[in-house]
Specification:
224 residues; Rossmann fold; 6-stranded mixed sheet; 9 helices; 40% helix; globular
């Protein structure tokens, strides 16, 4: 989808496959390109890579090469120099403000920036919930379906019992979700399996909020 005019910019390949599944469920897969920085000729896939790529994409709104841009990044953890929610939104704001975007204080889900020059809203979702520190895996943890709760608790307990974890404490949710997915019918699949195999509660308020945000920033009625 190299010629797509709607871009959902994400941090890496795991996020890409995850959001491709969500977009497909919302019938956005034919109009929205989900891409990490490297797919768009960026130098590296990461949160910082997203910031750098965003600066290159925004001018394309003015010349019509792109019509819609949205970004999903992790808040990460302030203690691990990952910015956290507040510093992440401040960083994004500093990038989009020179292009005329202003934070929409009335947005009902996710974060949106409006543009008085008539450009489409710029969308931002800071994982997990546009409030707390964390990452995509924390969003997934919140949305796990009732039928999967017992298995996920086993995975959580198993991770907690590791006597000397090799991973830092702030990545515990990643280890928990990875362990839970490793115990599914088809072990070894990525985060996208949580959507593909219907392991999440798509009626959970956080799940619905993400869907509503995607449909707002990529409105289907705007198709030409």
């Amino acid at each position: 989808m190299a010629d797509a005019k709607k871009i959902l910019l994400v941090e890496g390949d795991a996020d890409k496959s995850f959001f491709q599944k969500i977009c497909k469920n919302l019938s956005l897969d034919t109009s929205v390109q989900v891409a990490p920085p490297k797919d768009l000729s960026g130098t590296h896939n990461s949160k910082e890579g997203v910031f750098q790529q965003l600066r290159l994409l925004l001018p394309q709104l003015n010349d019509g090469e792109l019509t819609h841009i949205a970004v999903v990044v992790d808040a990460d953890y302030l203690a691990q120099h990952g910015l956290g929610y507040q510093k992440t939104i401040e960083r994004i704001t500093s990038i989009v403000e020179p292009f005329g975007f202003e934070l929409d204080q009335d947005a009902q889900s996710g974060v949106c920036f409006k543009n008085p020059d008539g450009l489409a809203d710029f969308g931002l979702w800071i994982m997990p919930d546009n409030q707390q520190e964390g990452m995509l895996e924390d969003w997934i943890r919140s949305c796990i379906s009732e039928t999967e709760q017992t298995l996920f608790q086993y995975a959580t307990d198993a991770v907690q019992r590791i006597p000397a974890p090799k991973f830092p404490a702030h990545l515990t949710s990643k280890a928990q979700v990875a362990t839970w997915l490793a115990w599914q019918k088809q072990p070894g699949h990525g985060l996208y399996a949580a959507i593909k195999d219907q392991l999440l509660d798509n009626e959970h308020p956080l799940f619905k909020a993400l869907e509503q945000w995607l449909l707002r920033v990529f409105p289907q009625e705007a198709e030409q």
